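Q: Convert this sequence to structure tokens.
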Amino acid sequence: MKKPLSLFVSLPVILLPILIACNNQTKKTEEPQKIENTLQSVSYFKDTVGLDPNHLLEAFSKMNEAIDEIGYPDAGYKLWMNQSESSEVRYMVEGFWPDQETYDIIHNNQLYIDAGDADSTVWAGLVSLDYHRFNRVK
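A:
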């Protein structure tokens, strides 16, 4: 008679992990909603001090991390380096923003300001040659 009792006690131990696994598989993972960017900025920079592109990339990465923390992971910057040594333009920076209101929210946020201020020596070596803003045509 002890065999049926031990089976009764061990049955929940066996079935519980199976039920948990099945329940976890049926749960849908929610993906964060992507925000459509409708505003883009493009800046061209001259490098006056021979910056290491990795230092500049790191500075923009810090700013992008701040933008993520503010709540806009689909916004931020992409850095491009000109392949031509003969051009005055050394870097192009693209900025992607959902809209003007979000652009203002991000740029006035202390996290963003602090991230930019952290690398002030990097920015000192860059001279802005041209800046353009674009609205997406729908």
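Residues 2-26 form the longest helix (25 residues).
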